[in-house]
TrEMBL record:
PANTHER family: BPS1-LIKE PROTEIN. GO terms for cellular component: membrane. Belongs to the ROH1 family. The keyword Transmembrane applies. This is Protein BPS1, chloroplastic-like. It is a single-pass membrane protein. The keyword Coiled coil applies. The lineage of its organism: Eukaryota, Viridiplantae, Streptophyta, Embryophyta, Tracheophyta. Residues 284-311 form a coiled coil. It is found in: Membrane. It holds the Pfam family ROH1-like. Keywords: Coiled coil, Membrane, Transmembrane, Transmembrane helix.
């Protein structure tokens, strides 16, 4: 987590490459149209599930866990769709293969960056648990160490993560290639590209939200999706509400939009005020309630980080399995 030291770098410094992209190939054979419609209905339903019921849902770790869980489901769906299309890999256009492989390797890098920051948050949280242990004693030396550690925690949690910064460049690249190759003379190919477009939109948006949560500054997309997509309006509404809440958080000077981390930061600030700089000579106010609150929030954060990390690992494995399956088919052919 880092505070922006320089003006935040905007995505796409040379202009927004996104345009209103309309689905093509509406005259698909009924079987292929049914496959595509089923995929897009599932995508729309997942986007609806993510729509926050209140601003407090953005960004909570439970909401982020759900977002990653639903992203896993969408990527699993694309594997199922490829099987249903019965489009053998040797029949794939070379551009389609390049697109799939390019997306997958970049997503693996994004997963590694997210996992790196989750590990950083967990290590910082362990520091707080040591602090609460020291605060169980009224011994002046332990109180002084605890007070110093609270200050170190804030510095640690605000430190820059270069892997997450690099993740932004990857997301830029994914966003710039959102418009997938045009398909001629292949109805199955059109279905594949339209489905991959939906996958990319959901993936790029959700990963940009994660990057914004971890970087300490908004690094968000504003994707323009044609209403002719059955999931277009649902996505646009979700994107608008989530992005607005994140931007509002940072505009008010908060160092993170993560609800659980913000709550812990308030507990840390409160304890830092209560513990005097020199507890040997100054009276120490009762700490029991404040320490108990911090301990409870730190334990809950640890549980939530563990669950989210598991979902990110699952996403990594799904992307890796799809990539390996494609490469294996190419070698076999």
């Amino acid at each position: 987590m880092s505070r922006p030291q320089t003006p935040p770098r905007q995505f796409f410094p040379f202009g927004n490459p996104f345009r209103m992209i309309s689905p093509k190939g509406s005259n698909l054979p009924s079987k292929l149209a049914a496959i595509l419609n089923a995929f897009e209905r599932s995508l729309a339903e997942r986007l609806r599930k993510l729509h926050p019921s209140s601003k407090d849902d953005v960004l909570s770790l439970s909401w982020m866990k759900l977002a990653m869980e639903l992203l896993c489901e969408t990527h699993s769906d694309i594997k199922t769709l490829i099987k249903e299309l019965d489009l053998p890999v040797p029949d794939w256009n070379e551009k389609w293969i390049d697109v799939y492989l390019d997306i997958s390797v970049k997503l693996l890098d994004v997963c590694n960056a997210i996992s790196s920051e989750l590990s950083h948050l967990n290590q910082s949280n362990l520091m707080l648990r040591c602090v609460t242990h020291n605060l169980d004693s009224a011994e002046s030396k332990r109180l002084a160490r605890a007070r110093a550690s609270l200050g170190q925690w804030k510095q640690n949690i605000s430190s820059s993560n270069s892997r997450v910064k690099n993740c932004c460049a990857i997301l830029d690249s994914l966003g710039e290639s959102l418009d997938l190759p045009k398909v001629k003379n292949s109805a199955k190919g059109k279905v594949l590209m339209l489905a991959l477009y939906g996958v990319k939109v959901q993936t790029v948006f959700m990963c940009s939200v994660f990057a914004s949560a971890f970087l300490g500054s908004p690094k968000l997309f504003d994707l323009k999706i044609a209403d002719t997509y059955s999931w277009g309006q649902t996505f646009s509404s979700l994107q608008n509400d989530v992005n607005n809440e994140i931007r509002s958080t940072y505009s008010h000077g908060k160092f993170t939009p993560l609800k659980e981390l913000e709550a812990i930061d308030q507990c840390v600030a409160n304890l830092h005020k209560i513990i005097p700089e020199n507890p040997e000579v100054e009276e120490v106010k009762p700490l029991e309630n404040a320490v108990s609150e911090l301990r409870g929030k730190a334990e809950k954060l640890s549980e939530d980080l563990h669950l989210l990390t598991n979902e990110v690992d699952s996403f990594f494995q799904i992307v890796l399995a799809g990539r390996d399956a494609l490469l294996s088919s190419l070698r076999g052919s």
